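the four lines:
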Amino acid sequence: MLDRVLELVVLLNDDMTQAIEALDLTPSRTHLLWELGRRGPVTQRVLADALKVTPRAITGLVDALVTSRLVTREPHPADRRATLVTLTAEGSRLTGKLERDHRTLARALFAEMSWREFASFERGLADVIANLRAHVVSTGGRPGARTATRRAS
Amino acid sequence: MLDRVLELVVLLNDDMTQAIEALDLTPSRTHLLWELGRRGPVTQRVLADALKVTPRAITGLVDALVTSRLVTREPHPADRRATLVTLTAEGSRLTGKLERDHRTLARALFAEMSWREFASFERGLADVIANLRAHVVSTGGRPGARTATRRAS
DNA sequence: TATTGTTATACTCTATAACTATA
DNA sequence: TATAGTTATAGAGTATAACAATA
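prediction for all of em together
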């Protein structure tokens, strides 16, 4: 069963390799696209809350995605301070694929998993726990933070 | 059951908060300490392979941990090119605690988990899968890589 | 020749702080 | 006054490339 999941991961990965190279995707940029795909056009403030990141970080991520022609900044119809980050046609195609792949993977992971199979999966999950541990230790338990908070000067 | 795990995480987290602040711990530095605790004194080359990172990155991490007095660089007895990264007494105390806490958490997660409980845990794991997905997409499936590889100039 | 670890340089991601435009 | 998003600045983590010392 684990074999099947790994095989699937490799397949999905092969599918996406081209997009990564051509579109300069990174984990954070992909995460932003993911949220955008589920929420539709939203302000950068909403994205900042969704990614649990400061508005400043969103500015940089959106800049990069605009350059890759995956999103655009549109004026907010009611609030002239705000901008609506919107998927382009290509961005929309990509997030659609992301969601379909995500569902496929989730089904493979859980749909056919028995208790016995899960027990054999336990060893593989040890790494996940180790990561959780490191995370809790070094970020004060806040899952959104990837870098340590420096002391304010 | 999930409540018990979360409670435990909070407890361990409280235990470690002081160390984080005082010793300038970060996820990568904690990971290095973790490997060092399991392997004993090793060369930076070995650590680079263990963390799946270039030797250059190890230089910076070890520099920081030396400053925090958690490790020292000792001359390799047989190879004058290499240095042995070694835990200090305080570093050893810390990694000992890390390992004990890790075991405690792993036991809480798995020892009493039934299939039914796992099913209810599935929703929580959706985030893990989403992260896996983002990771596969943006790093070409190499779990060790956290930043995207830039095109060589 | 090959390997260990360094310096030099550059990129991503994140943070805080100060600021502008708007509400 | 408060909020949305920007520029300025800084730090952590990583990479490639060139290099010195040693194997």
